């Protein structure tokens, strides 16, 4: 089937954006649209200029026998700031305060559009890294981990507190939750994480860091490698966290007078590094 240029541009953009970080040969598009190589090259040039100008992502084009085209998703600093400001306004409502210094945010983490944008922010730090899998624990952070994994085009796995029989044999670690001071256990199926995998840990909320530290220990048990830690929000914590290196979208400070102070996390410094 012969495509018009406008049709090619729409279809090619959609294909690349739904296959992020995947190298696709130019021959694939030549055959798909029954078009000349020169026409496909021109189309890719138009797409590259538009996507990069709009800060939606970038198009990487490599030449040679093993060359091709790859879409690298991203989000601009200004759009990320707009997303963050909307989150801060929504989550600053006093009625959202929960006991223990937590803030109710289940509705935010259940909003598909908001989750997608948060996923774009967190994934931006790792689009050029060799991430093989995104890991999270069975909490409200599951949709967020899935959104980050979608942007990076890698699988995501869920660490459970009580393994299901359908998981097969598992590896488990015990840890102390720094927020509740309780000993807990987490397990992961032996089939979930191949040896030497490079793992990005994603969670919804960071306080003392005990849960994330336990996931780090679990990663070591699998002979895998921790690439980084990303969280939606970090809460105030009186003490020394179990982890020191992480990226957060929001920072949540609560006080005894029922006020909530929410500010941007450290993502701007870690991801955009001064970009305006």
From TrEMBL:
One of its GO terms (biological process) is negative regulation of DNA-templated transcription. The keyword Iron does not apply. InterPro entries: PRTase-like (IPR029057), PRTase_dom (IPR000836), Pur/Pyrimidine_PRTase (IPR050118), PuR_N (IPR015265), PurR_Bsub (IPR010078), WH-like_DNA-bd_sf (IPR036388), WH_DNA-bd_sf (IPR036390). CDD domains: PRTases_typeI. Pfam families: Pribosyltran, PuR_N. Residues 108-252 form the Phosphoribosyltransferase domain. Homodimer. PANTHER family: HYPOXANTHINE/GUANINE PHOSPHORIBOSYLTRANSFERASE, PUR OPERON REPRESSOR. Belongs to the purine/pyrimidine phosphoribosyltransferase family. PurR subfamily. This is Pur operon repressor PurR. It comes from Pediococcus claussenii (strain ATCC BAA-344 / DSM 14800 / JCM 18046 / KCTC 3811 / LMG 21948 / P06). The lineage of its organism: Bacteria, Bacillati, Bacillota, Bacilli, Lactobacillales. The gene is purR.
């Amino acid at each position: 089937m012969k495509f018009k240029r406008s049709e090619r541009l729409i279809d090619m953009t959609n294909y690349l954006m739904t296959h992020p970080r995947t190298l696709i040969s130019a021959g694939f598009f030549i055959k798909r649209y029954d078009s000349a190589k020169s026409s496909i090259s021109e189309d890719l040039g138009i797409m590259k200029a538009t996507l990069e100008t709009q800060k939606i992502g970038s198009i990487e084009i490599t030449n040679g026998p093993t060359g091709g085209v790859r879409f690298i998703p991203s989000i601009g600093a200004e759009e990320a700031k707009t997303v963050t400001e909307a989150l801060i306004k929504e989550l600053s409502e006093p009625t959202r305060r929960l006991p223990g210094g937590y803030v109710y945010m289940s509705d935010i983490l259940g909003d598909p559009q908001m989750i997608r944008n948060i996923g774009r922010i967190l994934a931006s730090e790792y689009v050029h890294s060799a991430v093989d899998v995104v890991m999270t624990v069975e909490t409200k952070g599951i949709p967020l981990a899935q959104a980050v994994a979608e942007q990076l085009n890698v699988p995501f796995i869920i660490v459970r507190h009580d393994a299901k029989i359908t998981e097969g044999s598992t590896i488990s670690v015990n840890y102390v939750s720094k927020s509740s001071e309780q000993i807990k256990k987490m397990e992961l199926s032996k089939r979930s994480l191949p040896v030497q995998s490079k793992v990005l840990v994603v969670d919804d909320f960071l306080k003392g860091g005990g849960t994330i530290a336990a996931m780090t220990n679990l990663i070591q048990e699998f002979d895998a490698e921790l690439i980084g830690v990303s969280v939606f929000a970090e809460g105030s914590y009186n003490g020394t966290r179990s982890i020191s290196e992480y990226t957060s979208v929001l920072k949540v400070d609560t006080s005894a007078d029922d006020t909530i102070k929410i500010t941007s996390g450290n993502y701007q410094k870690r991801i955009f590094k001064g970009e305006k």
